[in-house]
Amino acid sequence: MKDKIRIASGQGFWGDLPEAPVQQVTKGDVDYLVMDYLAEVTMSILQKQKNRNPNLGYARDLPELMKKILSICLKKNIKVITNGGGVNPADCADEILKHAVDLGIEKLKIAVVLGDDIHDRLDELVEAGIELNNMETGESIKSVKHKILSANVYFGAMPIVEALSNGADIVITGRTTDTGLTLAPMIYEFDWDEKDYDLMAVGTVAGHILECGAQSTGGNFLGDWQSVENMAEIGFPIAEAFPNGEVIITKHENTGGKVSYETVAEQLIYEIGDPTDYITPDCVADFTSIKLEDLGNNRVKVYNVKGKPETEFYKVSCSYEDGYSAVGSLTYSWPQALSKAKAADMILRKRLYNLGLQFDEIRTEFIGYNATHESLAKVIDEDDINEIVLRVAVRSHDRDAVKRFGQQIAPLILTGPPSVTGFAGGRPKPSDVVAYWPALIPKKLVTPKVKILNLS
C-alpha cells in the first residue's frame, strides 16, 4: 500500500483548457490524471453525434490530447481516468490505441466501462413497471419516452476500481459521477472497504473539489478574486490523498492561481442541495462534517468527513426533444440606448401578436442593464448609458412560429428606433430544445461492465 497518492484534475468540463492536462503531467509529480468531460446536456450532444455517425459519441478532442501526453504518462507511470467516453467509450478507446501505435508504443492496456446507456432498454423497463418518474415533478417517463434522446445511469467508483485492479493504464467511462473518478484510485491504492462510508465520503468530497478544475484554485472565485495571481497560467487542483482519509488540496508550485481555505470552501458549496445528504452511488456524504485547515503555501487540508450508506438506486440522466428555439439581437447606442431597446422590444412583440404567433416562452434581455439580475437590476438613467444589446429569445413546439420570429428581427433596423447596429440572429434555423429528465432506477436492474483492450 502506498503512503500517499497525488490525483490531478485535468479537465472540469468538455471544452476546458486543453493545456491543463499537459501541464498536470509535466510540471510536477502526480500518480493519476482525472478528467471530467460530462454534463447533462453534454450527453444529449454526444448522443446526437452518435446517431449521425455510430463511430462518434465521445469527446473527440480526448484522443488527440492522449496523443500528446500518452508517452509521458507511461514513462512516469501516471494512470488516466476519464468519463470522456460519453456514449461511446469503446470507439474512444480504439482511437487512442491507434494513436499509441503511431507513437510506437508497444504495450498499453485501456479499460472501458460500459452498461450505463439504457436508452435501448426504456421500453423493456417501462413494460416491467419501472416508471422512471421525473424526480422533480413525479411525472412518468411515458409522457416523453418517444422523444428521449439519451438515457444514462450514473455509475460510481467501483467499476473504475475493477478496471485499475485489472492493470489498466487508462480507464474510459461513460456516465460516471464526477466524484467517482477521484474516489476510485483511493479505494484501489489504499484497499479501502467500500462499506467504510466515512472513507467513501472522503474520496467523494475530494472528487467534488477536483471536478470543476481550476474553480477550486482561484478560477471563477467570488471572494477576493483580484488576489488570485497569474490567472493566465492558472494551475489545476491536485488532491494528495492518504490512507487514513486525510486529503490535502494543492497545485503545482510553478503555476498561477491560488489554493486557500476560501477557494476550496467555495467549491464545496457548488451544486449542493441538502449539505447533509450529498447522494452518490458510493455513499451519502455529509458536507456539514467537513473540516478545512489552511496549511499555507497553496495547501488546504480536508478531514473529518462523515458518510452514510449508499441508496439502493442509481440516478438516470435522460434528455428529450422539447420543441424549438431561436435568438435574435440588435445593439442600440447613446443617446437613450435603453429607451430605444425597450421600444424595439415592444414593437417586436406587437408584430408577433398581430401575426398570431404562439410561443411557450418569450424572454427579453437588455444586455448592459438587466441580463444578469433581471428584475433586481438597479434603476439607471436611461439617457446616460452608452449602449444596450437587445436580445430576444423564443421557444415553441411550433417550428413555423419560431422561424417566422427570426424573420422579424432584421426589419427592426429600418422600421424601428434609430442608432442600431450589431444585428445577429437574422433568420435562424430553429434548433431543437433539449430538456432534462432526472429519474431513479434500482441498482439491481443495471450492471456495469468492464472491458479490457490491450496493445501488446
Describe this structure in words.
The chain has 456 residues and is α+β, with helices and mostly antiparallel strands. The protein folds into 2 domains: 5-116 and 154-311, no CATH class; 323-433, Alpha-Beta Plaits (2-Layer Sandwich). Helix content is 28%, strand content 26%. It has 12 helices and 19 strands. It has helices at residues 20-26, 40-52, 61-76, 89-102, 122-127, 158-165, 180-190, 197-210, 261-268, 337-354, 399-406, 412-415; strands at residues 5-11, 32-35, 79-82, 108-114, 148-153, 170-173, 238-241, 247-250, 278-279, 284-286, 291-294, 300-303, 306-308, 313-333, 361-367, 387-396, 420-424, 431-442, 449-455. The strands form 3 sheets. The chain has a 10-stranded mixed sheet with strand order 11-12-8-7-1-2-3-6-4-19, sandwiched between helices. A hairpin with a 5-residue loop joins strand 11 (291-294) and strand 12 (300-303). Helix 6 (158-165) packs across helix 7 (180-190). It is globular. The protein starts with a strand and ends with a strand. 45% of the residues are buried. The mean pLDDT is 95.
Mean pLDDT: 95
What is the structural class? alpha+beta
Number of domains: 2
Shape: globular
The helical percent reads 25-40%
- pLDDT < 50 runs, ≥5 residues: none
Q: Record the strand order, biggest sheet.
A: 11-12-8-7-1-2-3-6-4-19
Radius of gyration: 25 Å
DSSP summary, beta strand count: 19
Report the total helices: 12
For the record, give the distance between the C-alpha atoms at the N and C termini, rounded to a whole number. Answer: 27 Å
Q: Main β-sheet: number of strands, strand sense, barrel status?
A: 10 strands, mixed
**What amount of the residues lies in strands?**
25-35%
